[in-house]
Amino acid sequence: MTSAPSFHPLDRVIGESLSTHHRSFAIGNDLARRYPVDVAPFATIADTSPESTGALSQLLAPGDHAVLFTLVDLPAIEGLEVVLNNDLDQMIGPAISDAPANPQIVQLGAPDIDEMTALVKLTKPGPFDRRTMEMGDFFGIRVDGRLAAITGERLHPEGYRELTAVCAHPDFRGRGFPRDLILSVSRGIVARGETPFLHVLSENKAAISLYQKLGFVLRRTLRITVLRKPL
User: Fold this and answer.
1) What is the pLDDT at residue 5?
2) Burial classification of residue 19, based on how many CB atoms lie within 10 Å of its CB (0-12 exposed, 13-18 middle, 19 or more buried)
3) In CATH, which of 3.40.630.30, 3.40.50.300, 2.30.30.100, 1.10.10.10 is domain 91-219?
4) Is the dihedral of CA 67, 112, 91, 25 positive or negative?
């Protein structure tokens, strides 16, 4: 008798998040699940069978996007077009540094959403929508009242917490704000008994270098596929 393959929770990180801490967000069934469009574009499928890929297609309205993290390339899915297919490094922490916490760091909330959305749109660190903040805590640094940098928490499989939206406004780069925020958020995750991790496009060498300096190491390389249902 052949036993079923064993997967690490981070191998199927979107599905594990939607079936544990983020189950309240889950739309779909065992074949395919996704987050609400205004929370995150992430989706997952049970396997690459026509049943699972067809179920994913049914979850998307015309014009919707779905972002999947997989161990292998996805086959062509009828009715969905590929917008992006690339290597994605999954790095695991915690961040390590003796640097003291930056006292400028503040927790962000609903009143900050317009500024956060504008900063993410400008710097493009990854998906962020009006309700993304519901996935976890977000923090920022303000300089003379302006939002200079942010970092927050996103995917949440059992025992792990993802860092996301690491970005700084161009006017405030070179001050170490992303480093300070990564350290602060990572320390908070560890204090709750969880392990921080993050995702970064494999081609983004500058970001990878920063994460490595802070103690994050490559766990494995995944494939990121962005799909779109045509109008």
Assistant:
1) 53
2) middle
3) 3.40.630.30
4) negative
Cβ count within 10 A of residue 160:
22
pLDDT by residue (tens digit) across 75-117? Answer: 999 899 999 999 999 999 998 888 889 999 999 999 999 999 9
* More confident site: 3 or 160: 160
d(CA 205, CA 215): 15
Rounded distance between C-alpha atoms, residue 82 and residue 99, angstroms: 43
In the chain, where does the domain assigned CATH 3.40.630.30 lie? 91-219
Extract the tokens encoding 99. Answer: 């640097």
Residue count of the chain, please give it. Answer: 231
Residue-level pLDDT at 98: 84
DSSP string across 143-204: ETTEEEEEEEE----TTEEEEEEEEE-GGGTTS-HHHHHHHHHHHHHHHTT-EEEEEEETT-
Q: What percent of the chain is modeled with pLDDT above 70? A: 97
At position 95, the amino acid (one-letter code) is: A
> CA-to-CA distance for 176 and 130, rounded, in angstroms?
27
Other C-beta atoms within 10 Å of 4: how many? 5
Give the pLDDT mean for 183-192: 96
Residue 65, Ramachandran bin (φ over 0: left; ψ between -120 and 50: alpha; else beta): beta
Asked if residue 221 has pLDDT above 70, the reply is yes
Q: Which residue in 140, 141, 166, 162 sits closest to 153, CA to CA?
A: 162
